Amino acid sequence: MFVSVALILAFIGTVQANCDNNCSGHGTCQTDDVCKCYDNWGVGLSHDSGDCSDRICPFELAWVDTPDSNGAFHRYAECAGRGICNRATGECQCFDGYEGKGCQRTTCPNDCSGHGTCEYIEDMTYAADWNTNKLDYFTGEELTYDYNNWDTRKTRGCVCDATYGDIDCSKRMCPYGNDILAVRDNLLVSQKYQVQELEFRASVMNSIDTNSRTFALTFKSRLNETFTTIPIVFDDSDLTDFINDIHLALLNLPNRVIDGLTVTGQQMDRTRVLIQITFTGDAVQGQQNLITVEDYECGAGCTPKLDGLGLQTRVGRLPSDVEQKEVADFNSYECGRRGKCDYATGLCQCFTGYTGDNCNTLTTLS
To answer: How many CA within 13 A on the CB side of residue 252?
Structure first.
């Protein structure tokens, strides 16, 4: 009799704690025969506990979802709503264009074709045009803007290497040049070249305390090539020699990126020196990006090695200003607007009657 009662009680106890499939070894069985699954385990799309046989995939901010009662979007969703969860492994199988632990970030088109870097939207710098300085007036560093929208650390795009373009950096850029047949607004005056003016202002009143110290100039071409000159010795005591040093340093940049220019200058007083750079070469016709003055100290292990200049920083202005003083009559078009760019090679295929790297040489008259 006692043995029978014990067996019955043991059977009842077993029935009372008999969860489906013993929770698959991924949870604990509760007294109501319901599994309490371990983290990241459950069953089905609703993630009910069931027998705890399915993996749950990572949750990230949803790319697209329906609003809640407060009108809020982009709540957390499994695989960010841009992938299918593999219930066996707990890993997201992301749709094309998305990647990451929970499909939380975009891929870049064609991986930028091997000719660029895939950057988060908040890390991209200001896309300055030809007459805008990319440097912050107060810090002198490259200008950026804070970005704190919902897709921070999610949305990415290509930043192409120099001489490459398009959304996936797959195309070689062709040379830019003046349209040889473009008509100027006023043919009664001499043709104008772009002039950029550099202003150096001393940090100590009544004294240029920068003599014999070095700085450099950086030029960015229309093909986004960036070149920095060798160190230039600042010497306002011999302005003619100083001007010549600037002229030679710019002309000696690689690939003849600047193939013609004139440099002039004047000392306004003991605190200011003005340098005017006029772009006259065929490769630099039309509007060019503003030159950047590298007036910081760049010591051992830095290229180029610079002493830096002791210049005055004015409120809202850089210590070494660069601005356009003369707008060019010339224009600047891809292949001079007289040819088509072969984006596979980066070479211009000039129309009949035109020749040159940028098709700005006329060979026949109609």
So the answer is: 12
Q: What secondary structure does DSSP assign to 296-317, as a single string?
A: S-B-TT-SS-B----BPPPTTS
Is there a contact between 81 and 71 (Cβ–Cβ < 8 Å)? no
Per DSSP (E only), the strands in 150-204 are: 156-160, 164-165, 171-172, 176-177, 195-201
* Long-range Cβ contact pairs of 129-137 (< 8 A, separation 24 or more): 130/287, 130/288, 130/289, 130/290, 131/287, 131/290, 131/324, 132/290, 133/290, 133/292, 133/318, 133/322, 134/292, 135/292, 135/318, 137/316, 137/317, 137/318
180-205: pLDDT as tens digits: 888 776 767 788 899 999 988 876 54
* Residue entry with tokens 């700085």: 215
C-alpha–C-alpha distance, residues 204 and 271, integer Å: 8
| 60 contacts 103 by C-beta, under 8 angstroms | yes
Q: What is the pLDDT of residues 101-121, one digit of tens each?
A: 999 999 999 999 999 999 999
Q: Residue 266: which of 291, 292, 236, 289 has the closest Cα?
A: 236
| Sole residue written with tokens 């003055």 | 293
Dist CA 272 CA 275 (whole Å): 10
